[in-house]
Amino acid sequence: MSEKRKSIKKIGVFTSGGDAPGMNAAVRAVTRAALANKLEVYGIRRGYQGMIEGDIIRLYSHDVSHIMNLGGTFLQTARSSEFRTEEGRAKAYQHLKEFGIDAVVVIGGDGSFRGALDFTQEYDIPFVGIPGTIDNDMYGTDYTIGFDTALNTVIQAVDKIKDTASSHGRIFFVEVMGREAGQLALNAGIACGAEVIFIPEIHSEEVELEKFLSKGFKNKKYSGIVMVAEGDTAGGAFKIAEKVQIKHPEIEVRVSILGHMQRGGSPSAVDRIAATQMGVAAVEALLDDQKSVMIGLKNDSIVHVPLQKVVKMNRGVDNNMLNLQKVINSV
Ligand code: ATP
To answer: Which of 102, 135, 148, 232 is labelled catalytic?
Structure first.
């Protein structure tokens, strides 16, 4: 404790980029851990935009009571094009100085971490990141806050779709979020027993789909789920379904785009616990004089990953998960 950074007295915390369930739990953990270390805590509202506008509020312990169970982010979030400019970052710095904030925790995705890197190259205020995105697409961590809740939301929705798909003997193409990453689609596909999973990282799904359509129907399987990641290179659920319909007019095809429901809802136990672990670790890291690192979870342990690495590297997909899908659907 004696070696810990003495110069930090006031800490700022904010959420940025896309919202994710569990962000509130992370803000709560950062706030409480900072207060436990006798620091003042400031919540910066609406991400980098709030920093630029000085939309900053003091946070006390009671301000973060009863927020752990809430989806979204009570500090709100935003995408700020102004922060991408030197002028915007200069305004943000002025406001941090005005409030006396001398260290910051940013909860968001890789874009938010790019912003943090730009800022810390120009100004001497340390930033530590917590990965918050339903996409689970970040390098250096097994897990990002929000992923588990979103996954469970998709599973619940697809279970319902399966009821109607089997009743009518239809093939449903279900499109899930994840941007350029297939983590959500792949995991949801496995958890829902999807026949085929389209993800941006793999390019052989159309062949797999054709195999299923011919083999599946011969095996008297008249309904099915095809999981499609929104960023898949085949062009999305509607396009894939349209192609199938043209080639197989005898098959009844439907499309369901799950959309923003995937981002909402009360966070799961996994998200709440991960957010709490990471929130406390972020404050500890700042007190230990660390900067420009992301707090991650690797094999259930806290790790510190340089933000430079996080924004440069791709996470990729887990080959074991791809193999699982192959084995299950090979018969
Ligand atoms: P999600 O993964 O949920 O989309 P994200 O953090 O990647 O979250 P972005 O919209 O990419 O979301 O980034 C959030 C904000 O970070 C941007 O609106 C912008 O203000 C800031 N930002 C992103 N990239 C940069 C950059 N290169 N320089 C400065 N600021 C940036």
So the answer is: 135
Q: List all residues whose CB is within 6 A of at least one atom of ligand 1.
A: 16-18, 48, 79-80, 83-84, 108-112, 114-115, 118, 133, 135
Q: How many other C-beta atoms are found inside a 10 Å radius of the C-beta of residue 214? A: 11
- Residue closest to 105 by CA, chosen among 83, 77, 131: 131
**110 CA distance to ligand 1 centroid (A)?**
7
Q: Whose CA is nearest to atom 3 of ligand 1?
A: 18
Q: How far is the CA of 311 from the centre of ligand 1 (A)?
A: 11
Digit-by-digit pLDDT tens for the chain (331 residues) are 445 555 899 999 999 999 999 999 999 999 999 999 999 999 999 999 999 999 999 999 999 999 999 999 999 999 999 999 999 999 999 999 999 999 999 999 999 999 999 999 999 999 999 999 999 999 999 999 999 999 999 999 999 999 999 999 999 999 999 989 999 999 999 999 999 999 999 988 899 999 888 876 656 667 899 999 999 999 999 999 999 999 999 899 999 999 999 999 999 999 999 999 999 999 999 999 999 999 999 999 999 999 999 999 989 888 899 889 888 887 7
pTM: 0.95
Ligand 1 centroid from CA 245, angstroms: 38
**In the chain, what is the straight-line distance between the N-terminal and C-terminal CA atoms, in Å?**
58
What residue owns the CA closest to ligand 1's atom 10? 17
User: Which tokens belong to 58?
Assistant: 């003091």
List, as own/partner pairs, every contact residues 239-243 make where C-beta atoms lie below 8 angstroms and the sequence separation is at least 24, other chains included.
240/173, 240/198, 240/206, 240/209, 241/171, 241/173
